[in-house]
Structures are given as structure tokens and as C-alpha cells.
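Try this one yourself first.
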């Protein structure tokens, strides 16, 4: 049972890692309110590339956790 929960959590991490890699702009923009009104804050192009790369790295490591053997990670 514990192994199943561990694998399920790793699969959720895979989904969120791939979502971050696929949609970095939607996951990193936000609005700020100030005395002058609202403004949208957009990430720079390098940050978007790094978010894609890190999303893929997280997804690959989580897939190794789900389908790999424990000795593969160490």
C-alpha cells in the first residue's frame, strides 16, 4: 500500500512537471495592484526556457521513481 501511494505521488509530480514544461507562461504570470492600478508581470524569455528545462528534469526524475528500481536513483 505504501509503495502504491509513493508511486501515485510521483505520478502527480510528473503531471505537474510536464504542465510546467508545456505552459510556463500561464503558470508564471501574475497581476500586481498598486496605487496606479493593476499591472501584469510577465517572465523573461530566459526564465521561460529554464522553467521548461526544470519541468522536464522533474518529470524525468519522477518517472524514474515510478518505474525504475530503487538502486537506479543512488
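Now uncover the answer:
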Amino acid at each position: 500500500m505504501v509503495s502504491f501511494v509513493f508511486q501515485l505521488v510521483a505520478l502527480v509530480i510528473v503531471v505537474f512537471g510536464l504542465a510546467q514544461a508545456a505552459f510556463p507562461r500561464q503558470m508564471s504570470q501574475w497581476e500586481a495592484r498598486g496605487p496606479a492600478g493593476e499591472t501584469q508581470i510577465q517572465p523573461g524569455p530566459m526564465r521561460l526556457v529554464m522553467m521548461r528545462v526544470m519541468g522536464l528534469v522533474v518529470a524525468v526524475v519522477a518517472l524514474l521513481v515510478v518505474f525504475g528500481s530503487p538502486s537506479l536513483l543512488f
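Discussion: Residues 2-28+39-72 form one domain. The mean pLDDT is 85.
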